[in-house]
Design a protein that fits this description.
Blueprint lengths: L2 H8 L2 H38 L4 H21 L20 H4 L3
Length: about 100
């Protein structure tokens, strides 16, 4: 890598913009992680007390896990798509599009 290429890379606005989004999504991920733990504990308590899981919370847990997956794909440069709130919230059904590489 030449010094000129290095300078161009350092001042690239798109990279810095992505870095800002990555910091934002790192913060959002921390909140989502706490919510996911609460969902898991709630489902465990529901199963323990009633013998079944709550279907609405089950669907929310699925959509939250897809959201977290999309956040990690963006943060690891495996996707250029910004996750929610810049895209629609996942509907809770995993599709091949959600699970394959771009």
């Amino acid at each position: 890598m030449t010094e000129e290429t290095f300078k161009q890379n350092i001042v690239a606005r798109s990279t810095w913009k992505r870095g800002i989004y990555m910091v934002l999504f790192a913060l959002i991920y921390n909140v989502a992680e706490m919510v996911m733990i609460a969902v898991a504990l709630f489902q465990f308590a529901t199963k323990l007390l009633t013998g079944t899981t709550n279907p609405r919370v089950l669907e929310f847990g699925q959509s939250l896990s897809l959201f977290i997956y999309r956040v990690w794909r963006f943060m690891t440069f495996n996707s250029e798509s910004l996750p929610f709130p810049f895209a629609p919230w996942p509907d809770g059904s995993a599709t091949n599009q959600d699970l394959k590489n771009p």
